[in-house]
Amino acid sequence: MAALDSQTPTAGPSARTTGITSPDMGTLNRFVVDLFGVMAYGELSAFERLSSDARFSPTLRDRAALGRLAVTEFEHFEMVSAHLAGLGVDVEEAMRPFQGSIDSFHERTRPADWYESLMKAYVIDAISGDFYTALAGRLDEATRELIGRIQSTTEQGGLLQSRLKAALADDPRLASRLALWGRRLVGEALTQAQRVGIERQFLGGLLFQGTAEDQERETVQLFAQLTRNHSRRMSALGLTA
């Protein structure tokens, strides 16, 4: 980790592809480690959550489907871990700063039943993907490539959307409850993203260059886009965001 905090470019993929030289390289590397640290712990947490939720599936087909998704999340965790190892960073060290806040988020958003578990997985996976994709567009080629690989290998969104639609068709009474749950989840997710940005101060400074006013404006625009994307996904389920 010490090497990544220095002013000297490292030999990792980000150092070769960004074209950023000292003194910005140290800041960039700290940001990349944070980005992959929060991604790694998010994927590990998703694996644990889906594995646990699968036990409460109403059918064996549903249990197998969630089990496959859990395996995919763990594969994503391993991909991020391998990338961090290539940068000379221990994945546990990279994840540790985010463990408390992510665990707290999941405690605040504990589902009441299997259907709320499905909605949580659907909402959080999609918002996380949008967020990481937006960040990747501002970073080096290796980072963009890894995030793209993770996004392209996941089937979670389509499968969860299909299962949620079927559940809503079978029991229309679920609609109002899941719509309300979805609104709470997106609010908590955006608050969580803001909290991480505040806790890791250089994160926002690197993402949104310029004056404080510029940073605030770009942050508002990013979060507005995340909210619009969420609204479209809720509409696809026939729910009001």
UniProtKB/TrEMBL annotation:
It comes from the Bacteria. Residues 1-21 are annotated as: Disordered. Residues 29-209 form the Ferritin-like domain. Signal peptide: none annotated. Gene3D superfamilies: 1.20.1260.10. Pfam families: MiaE_2. This is Ferritin-like domain-containing protein. CDD domains: Ferritin_like (cd00657).
